[in-house]
């Protein structure tokens, strides 16, 4: 079987992790090229893996030995690269968010529909996490009855010092926005943001923590605590309260350590620790889907568009202090309603 030749745009932390994954873990794939705006950084990675280096991401996309592209560059560059990949007829796995603005996401959706083929998958990795998949299975089985409330917690040990308050939504909460929509298979109708007491361990420009409230079409209320400088670890929780029971993720690692003095469950410290296996599954399923003609079951550009629309509405809610309605949009027949 011929292998899929993949190029990666962006050699920052997440990009390098994807490069390692494609090189060492994912089956049926050959890493052929990398790109980065920093020549020093990009060339170093290219030399390490013996692949070509392109300073311009678009050149990488156009290269003859690149069949598919992973985009892990800064958010503001996503749209131009995704649009170029669609133009060249190449599959693309784009890190979240699909693009920061609603207009750019719409352009991508329109270009993809016009091309007549689904080329784009968005990197909402949690959908590949075993515990979230089991949670969804349980909800879908109906054994716990209809879901009524979703309590989500998204705690980072720390965030980079360039974070400002809206980024708690556009960078962190966007995962809660996508995963809750996927779990409940429903669209949002409105949102509101409540500020917690601000921790002393952040800069003035970051009000941390916050609670993002979302309301779905059927009336499910979601409260997502986003706490960027929780200090003690990376802690992701989700608890679905249903009519006949409750389903939740276990938040700690799989092992229990017992010693003479204590019983303890180690906690994760970074999102890489917590979701490393989910990333591996995400990449393998993406490559496998391309091998059989690109029948993706992962997050589509429509899902990316809906997530950005919602996160932008949440930023409006944060800035205005008010409840913001989210207008209903018909999903084009080209896409499944919620992938
Ligand atoms: C980061 O940007 C991510 O994408 C992680 O998945 C997320 O959990 C984290 O909070 C963000 O800072």
How does this model look, in words?
The protein is α/β, with parallel strands linked by helices. The chain has two domains: 4-126 and 277-299, NAD(P)-binding Rossmann-like Domain (Rossmann fold), CATH 3.40.50; 129-274 and 306-325, 2-Layer Sandwich (Dihydrodipicolinate Reductase, domain 2), CATH 3.30.360.10. It is 37% helix and 23% strand. It contains nine helices and 15 strands. It has helices at residues 13-24, 39-49, 57-62, 78-88, 102-115, 130-141, 165-184, 271-291, 301-320; strands at residues 4-9, 29-35, 52-54, 68-71, 91-95, 120-123, 147-155, 188-195, 210-216, 221-227, 235-242, 246-248, 257-258, 263-264, 324-325. The chain has a seven-stranded mixed beta sheet with strand order 12-11-7-10-9-8-15, covered by helices on one side. It has a six-stranded parallel beta sheet with strand order 3-2-1-4-5-6, sandwiched between helices. Strands 13-14 form a two-stranded antiparallel sheet. A hairpin with a 3-residue loop joins strand 11 (235-242) and strand 12. Helix 7 (165-184) packs across helix 9. It is globular and about 55 Å long. The structure holds (2R,3S,4s,5R,6S)-2,3,4,5,6-pentahydroxycyclohexanone. The site of (2R,3S,4s,5R,6S)-2,3,4,5,6-pentahydroxycyclohexanone has 5 residues, from helix 7.
List the helices and strands and how they pair.
Layout: E1 4-9, H1 13-24, E2 29-35, H2 39-49, E3 52-54, H3 57-62, E4 68-71, H4 78-88, E5 91-95, H5 102-115, E6 120-123, H6 130-141, E7 147-155, H7 165-184, E8 188-195, E9 210-216, E10 221-227, E11 235-242, E12 246-248, E13 257-258, E14 263-264, H8 271-291, H9 301-320, E15 324-325
Parallel strand pairs: 1-2, 1-4, 2-3, 4-5, 5-6, 7-10
Antiparallel strand pairs: 7-11, 8-9, 8-15, 9-10, 11-12, 13-14
Helix pairs in contact: 4-5, 5-9, 6-7, 7-9
This protein binds (2R,3S,4s,5R,6S)-2,3,4,5,6-pentahydroxycyclohexanone.
